[in-house]
Please model this.
Amino acid sequence: MRWRFTRHRLAVVSLFVVIGLYFVAAFCEFLAPYDPNDFHPDYQLAPPQPIRFVDSAGRFTLRPFVYGRNAILNMETLGYTYEDDTNARYPICFFLRTGKPYKLWGQFSANLRFFGVKDPDATIFLLGTDRLGRDVFSRLIYGARPSMTIGLVGVGLSLVLGVFLGGLSGFFGGWVDLLIQRVIEMLSALPTIPLWMGLAAAVPLDWDPIRVYFMITILLSLIGWTGLARVVRGRFLSLREEDFVKAARLANSSELRIIFRHMLPSFLSHIIASVTLAIPGMILAETSLSFLGLGLKPPVVSWGVLLQEAQNLRTVALAPWNLAPAIPVVVAILTLNFMGDGLRDATDPYGKA
Model:
């Protein structure tokens, strides 16, 4: 399986990209130059600051730097435009202690950041700022944690429900199979977005962000387990008459041992591939809910929340860099799908060697 997976070049590249995305999600406090809710009122809707290696005089330097910014009021539009101040040059430093302290994973106090500028009056906005003067790049980094982890947690719950209920349906058959299949068909027949809207509207408004996060995860899992359950049911129906299952019954093995010790491991690779392909759906569902204002809400920072804040026409026209969260959403979904395709091909016993 490993050899066949490594031959799928696109899947291998996608695997490293996915690892990088989860690394960013795990260490977002360290990687982001600013707190996601820090306001810079003098830099509202400021465009991105490019990283430079060549100054205005044409001199090259190995240390990257950014120029300072001057805000100029446009008397016709009553809006601010920003120009680079070539006399104010701020080198970019790595592994420096700047800004207010943060808690890594909510547990460990720290003040070390991957990069930034030492001068407290200087700024480094790699992707510009939003309408409140918050750094878009930092919010993008912080948004990776809920958006990427909600797929893992949601698929984990769906895996438990799908394997358990699908296994019961395929192993026992009869009225158990009939009942579970009718429930699956009922859930599959319901329109997805109105169902999400109805379930999300039932979440109390006074809940804290953590409870809302887990509730959204549970809601997505309650809808996303049906496809895996059908796959598991079909495999159980084909395996329950195999010789090794009959031998386990003759050896007086319990039904739970037959299911989890003998039947599930025989197609575990297929389950892994199915789960990998289900993660992008969960990420897209959370992004859609948050974009519609029904999922996670501020002060929680997720890619869907960032896109929801940038959906007005003024932002698109005057500050298109606020649409940057759409890029990691597309990258995450594509790479997870490519990686899932590679796993599916690698675990297919009838595929090409």
The chain has two domains: 50-124, 140-347. The CA atoms of residues 69 and 84 lie 5 Å apart. The first strand starts at residue 52 and ends at 54. Residues 140-347 form a domain with the MetI-like fold fold (CATH 1.10.3720.10).
